[in-house]
Amino acid sequence: MNFQIRDAITANVQGDSSSEFRNTVEDAISRGDEHLLPGLGVFLEKWWKASSADEQQAFTEKLSKAFQN
C-alpha cells in the first residue's frame, strides 16, 4: 500500500475554515497524543512554504525563545 500521510492529512482538512483549523490545532495540542504530531508537522510544512522570509524569521525567533525556557 502506498500511503502518503501528507496527502491524507491534506484531504482531511481541505476546505476547512480558519476557525476549524484553530480547533484542530488546539485539540491536537490539548490531547497530547504523539500520533497527532505528524499532522501538526504537515500543517507547519504547508504554512512554511506559504510564508514570506520575514514571517519565517519571526516564527523561528519565537520558536527559539520558546525552547529557551
Automatic annotation (TrEMBL):
Gene Ontology BP annotations: asexual sporulation; sporulation resulting in formation of a cellular spore
Source organism superkingdom: Bacteria
Location relative to the cell: Spore core
Alphabetic keyword roster: Sporulation
InterPro entries: SspI (IPR017525)
Pfam families: SSPI
Regulation: induction: Expressed only in the forespore compartment of sporulating cells.
Signal peptide, first to last residue: none
The family this protein is said to belong to: Belongs to the SspI family.
HAMAP family attached to this UniProt entry: SspI
Name of the protein in its database record: Small, acid-soluble spore protein I
Organism (species): Lysinibacillus composti
